[in-house]
Amino acid sequence: MAGTLPASGAAAAAAPQRVTVDLAASEGPVMRGANGTLYGLSDDGVPSDAALAPLKITSISQKPEGGAQHPNGDALTVSRSFFRNGGGEINVMMQDVYAKWPYEDLGIDDYLPRVDKIVKEVAADPNSERFVYIPFNEPDQIWYGLGTSDQAQYEANRDRFFKDWKTVYRRIRAADPDARIAGPNESAYHTRLLTDFLAFAQRENVLPQVMTWHELGSGSLRDFQGHHDTYRSIERGLGIAPLKINIDEYANRRDLSVPGQLAQWVAMFERNKVYANQAYWDAAGNLDGNVVRSNIPNGGWWFFRWYAGLTGDTVRVTPPRANAIDTLQGLASYDTQRRQAQVLLGGSAGDSDVVVRNVSRSVFGGTVTATVAEAAWSGYEGRHAAPRVLARTKVQVAVDGSVSVPLRGMRKMSAYRIVLTPGGSGTPATPVVPWTGSYEAEDAAITGGQVYTQGTVDNANGYAASGTKDVGSLNTAASKVDFTVTVPRAGTYDLAVLYGNQSGTPATQKLSVDGRDPVTVTYPSTENWTYRAKKDLAVELTAGTHVLTLAKGDAEVTLDRVDLTARTSAEPSASYEATLADLDGKPSFDYSSSAGVGTGALVLRAGDQAVFDVYAPRDGYFTVVPQASAAVRLGLHGETVTAAPGQPLRLYLVAGNNRVRVTAQQSAIRSLDVSGAGSTAGTLSYEGASATLAGGARLVDSAYASAGSYIGDLGNSASSTAEFTVDAPKAGRHVLVVHYAHNDRRDNGHAYNTDIMSRTADITVGGAAPVRATFKNTWGWHDYWTLSVPVELEKGSNKVTFANASGWAPDIDRIELGRVVG
């Protein structure tokens, strides 16, 4: 099978690496334990339900309600959105009740009343059984100094910690007899302490129900297996039944958001069936670098979406090198009922052969369809469309029961998914894989700038950068970067610029092609110079070599890499495979034909449901076509519409992820096909200046607002409101899109956390009850993002009112409304 990837530089000269997957070697049911986050949720609604639900997150760690460590991320508050979106359990980081880092050491007598309050609140919650108490955080470094090399001092410190552990443990259990308690929660794995701790806890009957420690450095990719195995041997030696393990902080900045790095971490945790939460190094509310804004996927999000889609059992994967830092690693699942095998891998550039052994003919038949897709790195704040399918090929199962899938030109920061399904009759559609070229800024001609090295193995908490380097200090009038590119043919090319903008306002550069008249490129703000985002635009190029120049405009921008991709159609499109959707009920799988997307058809009957995660590059109308044998019903934004097979519907999608629910009386559906760029024809649009303002809300002039002004000083009293009058041609379900900005922050004095805050607004439509919407920080006061809220409009005049009696609402630039079914 040919699994050729887009061109991305010189081909690797070395022989292909080999990854072996053995479908006969089960490791047990897929657990999805490694998809957790620390402070991944900041508020109810941040991230959005549509971004949260598809990932099936098994555990998160958050601070106690009202804790002073951060301004948001309170466990009980975020539990509402976490649990309604299928979340598993919440670790309560009890010491985050304190404001300082490291925590103020005021003595155990100061801590105990705080413990009492936390336990009382959690125990009273209706979902109290889904919370886990973590009474101490990194005690080897904080309060107790358990990492000292002086054995006598260690023993004194250890005994003090053990005494306090016993006291707090019993205090928790006294107030909440069914409490689950986790610990000791060291900053790293230490055999010495864990050996002593387990013996003490067993003897004193204060054994945690969950064992926790942290694996943060690059060395964990090499050492974790040894840590895990040694820990289990300590348990066995003491006669302790295996405890649930949660590595409740893992990975560094250079790993987060990067699919190829995440694949390495997740593979080793899933293989050992332990739970794990990504570390919190920056801002809360973005699933630790995997969600753009509140609802937009990046490459990391798609990797975890793939992980959430594994079903059946995981099976043994043998990588080229086990337990080695930054090498090709993978995990795989095998579901005999669905007749699917999936392989996720990443972490290395170049070529590889994936050999799947023991491919059962009774399950798959004599041929399989192998579908290969790529989730690329798009930055922490760079949007990523649905992963590109690189190949769909029918492969004969060899006499020895194996199937080989070659991957060529893999990219180190990308992750790849291989799906094997029965071949059946027919031929799957050949995917269109456009020409792509990538160009590093550090390799370009630089004027008035400087090359910086970012995250590496030795500097693992540096930010991820393509090729580990970027170009910054582009802050003189003459600063520019000239990229020499060569394209194969004349046409339109999509240009993606990986950048950083810490200037506090939208910044600009001047883009010119071969020295011709420049156009202005505007870059929204990012958290900092190295918190990478992506700007997408288009350029017209003739075949051959060109110089693309990005020169300084207003403020300053850091450049990492540019990608050129040949545009192959007038509008982007994607096909979402039905047999890989989220399922409810008992649908059946029909692999008699591999036509279309190649993965067969999902047969839905009454009571069955398939949920598709559909990406939209912006808010607007898209064409949605179900490839089905009979009519289906599509549910979107609270609206339901009947769709005839193969017939297009014009549906309003919001920027980022959209959960489209499909039901039917009886229909075999192969895919949901979505195309378009987000038309706004037929939408209603109202500038802030058209609203009636009261109670101190006012119109503020701004060069960055769409019509030169925005609504500011809104809220913070019951009388402060902004009321729009909306004239709807038709009654029905609409999507209200609010263009807003705000940059509320509270600096808690932590060196590595950016304590951004959200704002809320109560939105009232006509006589309906108000709906509270949460608006994430936009990194700058003049950077306008969108938040979408489904609403019902009557035909004719409707009043849409924004208010917040208890705090400030965001600044509002304008609103748009689109009927769900256009």
Give an overview of the whole structure.
- The protein is mostly beta strands.
- 14% of the residues lie in helices and 40% in strands.
- The chain has nine helices and 52 strands.
- A nine-stranded mixed β-sheet has the order 17-16-19-14-13-12-1-15-18. It has an eight-stranded parallel β-sheet with strand order 5-4-3-2-9-8-7-6, with helices on one face. Strands 31, 33, 34, 36, 39 and 41 form a six-stranded antiparallel β-sheet that branches.
- Strand 2, helix 1 and strand 3 form a beta-alpha-beta unit.
- Helix 3 (108-123) runs parallel beside helix 4 and helix 5 runs parallel beside helix 6.
- The longest helix has 25 residues, at 151-175.
- The protein is globular, with a radius of gyration of 27 Å.
- The two termini are 42 Å apart.
- Mean pLDDT is 97; it is low at 1-12.
Distance, first to last CA: 42 Å
Nearest-angstrom radius of gyration? 27 Å
Number of strands: 52
Dominant shape: globular
Strand content: 35-45%
Largest sheet: 9 strands, mixed
What descriptors fit this protein?
822 residues; mainly beta; 9-stranded mixed β-sheet; 9 helices; globular
Describe this structure in a few short sentences.
With 822 residues, the protein is mainly β.
List the helices and strands and how they pair.
Elements: E1 17-29, E2 36-38, H1 49-52, E3 59-62, H2 75-84, E4 89-93, H3 108-123, E5 131-134, H4 151-175, E6 182-186, H5 191-203, E7 210-215, H6 220-238, E8 244-250, H7 259-271, E9 275-278, E10 291-292, E11 296-297, H8 299-308, E12 313-318, E13 329-335, E14 340-346, E15 350-357, H9 361-364, E16 367-375, E17 388-396, E18 403-410, E19 415-422, E20 436-440, E21 445-447, E22 450-453, E23 469-472, E24 480-487, E25 491-500, E26 507-513, E27 519-523, E28 533-541, E29 544-552, E30 558-566, E31 573-577, E32 582-584, E33 588-590, E34 601-605, E35 609-616, E36 620-628, E37 632-636, E38 639-643, E39 649-653, E40 656-663, E41 666-679, E42 684-687, E43 692-694, E44 698-701, E45 709-712, E46 721-728, E47 732-741, E48 759-765, E49 771-775, E50 785-793, E51 796-803, E52 811-819
Parallel strand pairs: 1-15, 2-3, 2-9, 3-4, 4-5, 6-7, 7-8, 8-9
Antiparallel strand pairs: 1-12, 10-11, 12-13, 13-14, 14-19, 15-18, 16-17, 16-19, 20-30, 21-24, 22-23, 24-29, 25-28, 25-30, 26-27, 26-29, 31-41, 32-35, 33-34, 34-41, 35-40, 36-39, 36-41, 37-38, 37-40, 42-52, 43-46, 44-45, 46-51, 47-50, 47-52, 48-49, 48-51
